Amino acid sequence: MSPKRLDRVAPPPVQVEWDVRFGTSEAAKGWDDLCAHAAGATRRAFELMRSDPRPPEDGTHYRLRGALASREFAGRILEQWQIKVSGAGRIWYLPDDDKHAVWVVYASPAHPKQTE
């Protein structure tokens, strides 16, 4: 997705921050829905991914378990983390140490079917 006229301007990362990018087209579509559903919580999740994508785990932010704990992305296996943004809203992302980036691979106000 190339930015166009009237699109949001993404803030450039500073050296200590991680670059947050979409890893799938579905995540890019779901991001706007999630922002409309829970703007404040989605912003807090964005800031957390950007500043500390592997914080101490708690009830709303943790690495996924089992078969979902890792995901292949761009030919490499990366850890897969989840942030609970709302009752059902979720963000799944992959911290990429080599690129100092976070790849958002799922974002939606709906609960992911893979975890049901």
The biggest sheet, with number of strands, parallel, antiparallel or mixed sense and barrel status, is: 5 strands, mixed
The share of residues in helices is: 10-25%
Number of helices: 2
**How many strand elements?**
7
Succession of helices and strands? EHHEEEEEE
Give unreliable regions as ranges: none
Can you list the strand order of the major beta sheet?
1-7-6-5-2
Radius of gyration: 14 Å
Query: What is the molecular shape?
Result: globular
Explain this structure.
By secondary structure, the protein is of the alpha+beta class. It contains two helices and seven strands; from the N terminus they run βααββββββ. It has helices spanning 25-37, 39-51, and strands spanning 19-22, 61-63, 70-73, 76-79, 81-84, 90-96, 101-108. The strands form two sheets. The protein has a five-stranded mixed sheet. A hairpin with a 4-residue loop joins strand 6 and strand 7 (101-108). Helix 1 crosses helix 2. The longest helix is centred in the first third of the chain and has 13 residues, at 25-37.
At a glance:
This protein is α+β, with helices and mostly antiparallel strands and 116 residues long. The chain is 22% helix and 29% strand.
Show the helix and strand layout.
Blueprint: E1 19-22, H1 25-37, H2 39-51, E2 61-63, E3 70-73, E4 76-79, E5 81-84, E6 90-96, E7 101-108
